[in-house]
Amino acid sequence: MAARILVVDDEPDLLELVRLSLVEAGFAVETAATGQQALEKLQRAAPDLVVLDLMLPDMSGTEVCRWLRGRPEFHDLLVLMLTAKSEEVDRVVGFELGADDYVTKPFSPRELVLRVRALLRRRAGAATEAHILERDGVRIDLDRHRCHVAGEEVILTAKEFQLLATLMRRPGRVLSRERLLDEIWGSDVTVTLRTIDTHLKRLREKLGSGGELIETVRGVGYRFAE
After folding, report:
1. Which helix (H) or strand (E) holds 28?
2. Tens of pLDDT, residues 7-19
3. pLDDT at 130 over 60
């Protein structure tokens, strides 16, 4: 079955260009010209991935992304930001809100299709890991994308969950910020090391007592306690 993609952009010509490029690549594509239209379509039937413009007429793409990441039913939904803004601060804000990738205008339709395929392939690879990781009261179910600490469920964003799983798979092993950025965001994405620190700070806060198991190795990176 073809992956389902929702493209959200208020520029008609660009919206049609992206739609045609993705349809020709074999995807099932829906479109929306405003943030409100996007939210309505998302609630009717969640796609596999959203190509989301940052500048929309009624609400920003960051608001849409924040809305998505605040709802557990959309935690597995992939978000690719598409915007004319290329400054580093915009990329950082997008990633901190939970975007999975970031493409700036003008862009190559072929590059966009390759980025979409890469995101879907990465998620499919993660989905084949049918097991549970559990250490010192912290338990994550990789199949169901759920996390529990001392029996209580903790709601994590997609990136927070990926970070926790990456650390828990290698207890006692120090992972540098660069390594974490590469594994979670991909080597072709440019973000600052501060992104990792921000996500891990929020992750520790959400885990409560379990957050103490994520140790900072100053000047090197992070590790999950053995």
Report:
1. strand 28-32
2. 999 999 999 999 9
3. no
Q: How many Å apart are CA 52 and CA 47, to the nearest integer? A: 13
The total of other beta-carbon atoms located within 10 Å of residue 208's CB is 14
Q: To which H or E segment does residue 49 belong?
A: strand 49-53
Phi, psi (rounded to 5 degrees) for 129:
-85, 95
With contact defined as beta carbons under 8 Å apart, do 6 and 50 qualify?
yes
Mean pLDDT of the chain: 85
Edge-first strand order for the sheet with 146-149 is: 132-135, 138-141, 146-149, 152-154
Domains of the chain by start residue, with CATH: 4-126 (3.40.50.2300), 130-224 (1.10.10.10)
Structure tokens at 201: 């700070």
Q: How far apart are CA 30 and CA 17, in angstroms?
A: 13
Tokens of 38: 């996007």
